[in-house]
TrEMBL record:
Domain spans labelled Phosphoribosyltransferase: 28-229
Pfam families reported for this sequence: UPRTase
Gene Ontology terms: biological process: UMP salvage; uracil salvage
Cross-referenced SUPFAM superfamilies: PRTase-like (SSF53271)
Protein name (database record): Uracil phosphoribosyltransferase
Cofactor: Mg(2+)
Pathway where this protein functions: Pyrimidine metabolism; UMP biosynthesis via salvage pathway; UMP from uracil: step 1/1
Length: 233
């Protein structure tokens, strides 16, 4: 039966169960829409415009979940008819896209959090060693945000996320979140052990890294696919 095949495939793609933890840890956000858009990203025939749109859709869905513990305070507003109670965010939120690929996630997240500050960090992986190389950092020396949300579609070895978390720790950020679309098991384990207080949100954890430290099955090079800089030689 066709239905049986679909069910089997669904089982095979199922994510590990969500371990939500406000004190740190990994949350795998499992939702049918997330899995549908993630499948578009994985498909090697997906062209850059749909790839970018899918990254944005996923960023929206994931940040909705990743901001569930933001704090609000009571406020009062006047509707056209009467006064009523409401809430306003009571925390300074910083969005930290990791250049380049993290830029693909910033616009939809800023739409949801229009009052957020955006602090860019430039990191790229050395092609030989896969170690993160820092090339842009303009964080101020003091007055850290209350909550920082690192945005980067890929968490492979975890080296880039850990470098960003270290920078935020030095800035004095007390609560840091990492929102990535795909992580490797090795990468989330490394980040969770080095930064147990960090809250990591991913759409899927893939089993392995290849010898070039790319996530398998993964989606290839996220930055190249977002910015259409895939090497065609
Ligand atoms: O977990 P890691 O092993 O550190 O790998 C993940 C990093 O690699 C990619 O960036 P890349 O270095 O390709 O830079 P780019 O975004 O400029 O393409 C990705 O966007 C992450 O930042
Ligand atoms: O699989 C990977 C690993 C690092 N960076 C990517 O864009 N993809
Ligand atoms: Mg890249």
């Amino acid at each position: 039966m066709p239905g049986t095949t679909v069910e089997k495939k669904k089982d095979r793609l199922a994510s590990p169960s969500s371990i939500s933890n406000q004190l740190g840890g990994v949350t795998v956000i499992n939702h049918p829409l997330i899995q549908v858009h993630l499948t578009k990203l994985r498909d090697k025939t997906t062209q850059p415009s749909l790839f970018r749109a899918s990254v944005k859709r996923l960023a929206t869905l994931m940040v909705y979940e990743a901001t569930k513990d933001l704090k609000v305070l009571d406020t009062v507003v006047e509707t056209p008819l009467t006064e009523t109670s409401g809430v306003a965010l009571s925390q300074r939120v910083g969005l930290v896209p990791i250049l380049r690929a993290g830029l693909g996630m910033i616009d939809p997240v800023l739409d949801l959090l229009p009052m957020a500050e955006v602090w860019h960090l430039g990191l790229y992986r050395d092609e030989e060693t896969a170690q993160p190389i820092r090339y842009y950092d303009k964080l101020p020396p003091q007055n850290p945000v209350d909550v920082a949300i690192i945005l980067d579609p890929m968490l492979a070895t975890g080296g880039s996320a850990m470098a960003a978390l270290m920078t935020l720790r030095e800035w004095g950020v007390k609560q840091a979140k990492v929102v990535s679309l795909i992580a490797s098991q090795e990468g989330v384990d490394a980040v969770a052990s080095q930064f147990p207080e960090a809250q990591i949100y991913v759409a899927q954890v893939d089993p392995t890294l290849n010898d070039r430290k790319f996530i398998v099955p993964g989606l290839g090079d996220a930055g190249d696919r977002i910015f259409n800089t895939v090497d065609h030689s």
